[in-house]
Each structure stands twice: as structure tokens, then as C-alpha cells.
Amino acid sequence: MKPQTQALHTGYENDAFGAMAVPLYQTTAYDFGTAQTAANRFALKELGPIYTRLNNPTTEIFETRMSALEHGAGALAVASGQAAIFYAVANLASAGDTILVARKIYGGATTLLTHTLAQFGIKAKLFDSDDANDLESQIDDTTKAIFFESLSNPHISISDFDAITSVAKKYKIVTVCDNTVATPFLCRPLDLGVDVVVHSASKYISGQGLAIGGVMVEREKLNELLIDNPRYPQFNTPDKSYHGLVYATLPFPIYTLRARLSLIRDIGAAISPFNSWQLIQGLETLSVRIKTHSQSALEVAKYLNSHPKVSLVRYPGLKSDEHHEKLLRYFHTPLASGLIHVDLQSPELATKLANDTKLFSVVVNIGDSKSLITQPAATTHQQVPKEELAASGVTESTVRLSIGLEDPQDLIDDLASVLG
Q1: Tens of pLDDT along 148-179?
Q2: Domain range for 116
Q3: Average pLDDT of the chain to the nearest whole number
Q4: Are residues 38 and 77 in the same domain?
Q5: Are 325 and 215 within one domain?
Q6: pLDDT at position 233, please?
């Protein structure tokens, strides 16, 4: 099936009542019927719902659709995009290990990966995902993951997939790519050699800012990289917390399985079934929305790119953008999502634009049906050290626009009312 059809049908056939909409199973627990069935499910002898922290029928449909859309082998939905990033890395690294993190990523992810995880003994090293020229030199025996974004937020740059995955394969290291901004309707990192994809589903997947959620998807045949790989003993040695279970012996996608049975079991950042249900509704219209977001963003970017009070516009959909060639190489469409990075002549003008526009709301979310504006240096990237912020291309004069579903001419008129 084509992606738009998968988003509407995969994982669900009308139930006994003929319900067209996916049912919401708003429950914490399940009646196993017999003690033997309960024992079999906990022992993985048969599959089925156990407890909603671990699995839920509504959430399972959302996971199945995300896996299909990303061309993956298995998925795990969690409480938020930040939880998805944490689980993705914690599934690979532990105290004493190192992860390689792209400089150009969402500020909250930078803080999580470089500061919070350091409290757990996991060290992060930064690399340039634009060309990855400094990636290989930083790899050693402790390196367990390489993390980057397909289309970075708020820098709006496209990573060099070929360079990153080539190095990762050489050293048998798992790559994790955040595909939140691009969505699988514009880019599928797993098809480009990436091992694991994560999303903040609260953004374009939700589409209206209604639900917090995250998801991680592993590629087909990731087991082959993990099994007997000395970098990842957690998949190849007995798990003492699960009666000596060795994940490498199981006939399932073991990356997401271990995250489900070990990490989400113990840490508990599980997604609400209601949020999964809302995200399923968002998926049904995502292909239509991301097209409109992208087409409108291109029109707005063209206007800003020609304005004398604008110092720089970063939007790969522009033919003049330094990442346009990579857009054509890595994305399966020339569309570039709805985010625009804009550097204005001064911080004061950036603040004025945020305050005085009428259609743009000052909000730190992205992917909403309504257009949003924020100054990353003062909000989403406030905790990032100034030297790291400057190296990533974000200044106090930067604004990030998330273009919604309004008519693009109305948005241009709104910006023009402030910029003149």
C-alpha cells in the first residue's frame, strides 16, 4: 500500500461492531482469563496486552502505522519526544559509554544528551552533521550511538546521511535520527541507512497541538547489527531482571522489544491510550497537511529571502539554500516541511516581529495547524551554552517560523505589516 493508505488502514480492521474509527481502549489493565494465559504473556510464550505501561491495543495500532510509514520492523510509542530520545539512547549506552551528538539539533535534546545523561555517566561528544567530517575521529571503543536530525530544528539544515551512516557501518555503531520535522511523508531515514528513527509525535503527527507523545522505530534487520556485536552486550548476555532472558535469541525486533520490556517497564514514561488515539487521527491527515505546510512555507521563505531587513533565510526548499541539493538527494519529494529559520537585522527587530504579528502566535511548539513564531535563543535553546549556540548558527536575532495552514498570502501580509 501507498503511505497515505497505510496511514488510514494499517493495523486495524473494523471491530465486531463495525466501528470505522479506531477504538480507544482507555484502560490500565486486562483480564487474562486464566492464570496460565497471564503466565504465558509474561514469559513471552504468547503475545497480547499485559498492562498499559507496556502495551495497549490502541497504542499498538499507532505503533504499527508508524512502523509502516517509516518502513521499519517495529515501533514503540512513549510519553513524549524527549522520552523517545532518552529510551533510544539508554537502550544502547550506560555509565562509562560515549554518544556522538550533532551540534544542530533541538535545544531540549542537546540538554538531555549532553548534560542530563552526563549525570548517569554517559558522555556526549559533538559533531557537525552537515558534512560529518569530524565524526570518525571521535569514535572509540566506548562509542554506542550517533544521534542527529534529518531536518534540524531550528537551524533548518539537512544532515549528510551518506557520510554519517558510512562511518557508523564501518564501526558497527547504531545511528539514531530524529525525523520529527520532515515526517516520513518527506523523508524516510531508515531507507537511507539509519538504524533507528525517533519522533516527537506532538508536532506534525498530532497537527493541532493536542497531544504529547513520542515514538521510536527500528529498521528491518537491525538484529543483525546487534547480535554478537561486542558494543552491545545488553542484547547478547542474560538480562538478570528478566530471568536471564537473552534478547538475541528471540525471533522479534529486539531493539524496541528490549526498550519495552526493560526500560519502559522500569522507568514508566508510557504514552496515554487517549493520546495514542488522538495521534492516530493526526496520522490520517498528515500527508495532506505536510504538503500544505511545505508549499506555504516556500512562499513565505521566498518573500523573506528578498526582504532588505532580513539577513538570512534558511529553508532547503529555496534553490539558493546550501542544503537544497541534499533535499533533492535525501528527501523523496522536493518539499521541505513548514519550518523557516530567519535571521533579522537586530535582536530588537526579531522581538518586534514576534510581538507585533497578528497571525503568528508566540509558541515553542511546531507543526501546529496555526502559524507559530519564537526566538530560539531566548526559549528552546536558552539552556545551550552561548559558544555552542553560536556554533550551531542560532543568534539573538534568529526567529523560527512554523508555518501553519493559513493562506500564505495572509501570512506574508502579516509579516510585511511589521517588517515594512
Answers
A1: 999 999 899 999 999 999 999 999 999 999 99
A2: 3-274
A3: 95
A4: yes
A5: no
A6: 98
